[in-house]
Structures are given as structure tokens and as C-alpha cells.
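In this section we walk through a basic example: taking a raw amino acid sequence and producing a predicted 3D structure, encoded as C-alpha cells. The instruction is simple. Fold the sequence below.
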Amino acid sequence: MFRSTLRSQVTRTPTQRDRDVLTRLPKSLQYDGRSNWSFFRNKFEQYARMNNWSEAESAVCLGWCQTGKAVDFNAVLAEGRGTVSYTDLVQRLQERFGAMELPATAQGRFQVTHQETGESLDDWSDRVLTLVTNALRDLPPTYATEQAVARFCQGLTDKEAGKHVSLQIPVSMRDAINSIKMYSYISLTPRFLAAPRVSTRNHGGFTP
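The resulting C-alpha cell sequence is shown next.
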């Protein structure tokens, strides 16, 4: 249903440019309804300006960039309406996904968040940085970074690794990630290599 909705946004016969616009969309230009809407919107609009997209092209591409909850919401918007303009689509997405949380709510969510099973270090760090942006948006960036790094370490699935890296007081998220990777590498390396057995009968020679 969603793809037919998108096709309905272009009433004329698609041209080669229309096809090029869609096939050249970066894979990283996606919004799932969970990540930071404002960040995605800025990135999307910068890309649209660089490629001189029209309003109609922007509307179609914005639809194709959506996944998860965002695509479900878009389908509901378009149902019974056919064409949804770019301006209207952005406004409705802003209302649905861009509303700012109350500071107390955002801070509470930030304090209890933790790494999910199967979540990579990079994805976990991205999620922490997104949450801290809302939770501590009125505080100095340096303080927000310190809190994000601390939450990253405390919320790790590997509690021992998190405790070890926290004591090193990493100065940035990248520093914390590198320290975690180093700790994991060292932890998996045998501390003691099996020493060769010495035969007392061969005057210190190695046993076969």
C-alpha cells in the first residue's frame, strides 16, 4: 500500500531524472521513527538542496527514506488523500516525531537506558548521544558529553568492562568505545601461555 501511495504522488509519467533521484538515494538517509527527527530532517534537506530537488521530488524521496514506525505513519496520512505535499508531510512528521519531551521525562529516560541485547557499541553510543541531547539540552556541551560517556559505560551489557573503563575516565565517546574494545581484546587473550615441560632426566632438555 505504501509504494502505491508514493507512486500516486507523481501524477505524470516518471522520467529518467525521477528514476535517478530514487536510485541514488544514500542508504544512510533513512528515518525509522525512533531516531532523532530533527537531525534526519536537516540532513535530508541539505541533500535535497545539493541535488536541486523540487517539492514533488522531495515528497517522494522523503517517503522512500522512511522505515518502521515512520512509514506506518506516512501510510495513515496518505490513506484517502492520495497526494501529500512535502510541506504537509514534513509538518505532520514534525508533530508526530519531533515534539520535545519534558526535561524531567527526558532526563529520567536517559538515566535508566541501557544497552540492548545484540546492540553494537556504535549503535549504543549513538542512542546515548541522542538521548542526552534532549535530556541535557540546556546545559553546557562539555557537561553533556561527560554525562553521555558515563551513561554509556554504566549501561553496558558487560558490567565489568563498563566499570573498568569508567575508572579510566574517558574524555570522549570514541575514547570510551576504544577502551571497551581494548578491554574485550585483553580479556579474551590467555594470561598465561602453557610453559614447555622440562624433563629432569634430560638435564633440562624439553620433553618430546
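Looking at the output, two observations stand out. The CA atoms of residues 2 and 67 lie 11 Å apart. The chain has a mean pLDDT of 81. In the next section we compare this with other chains.
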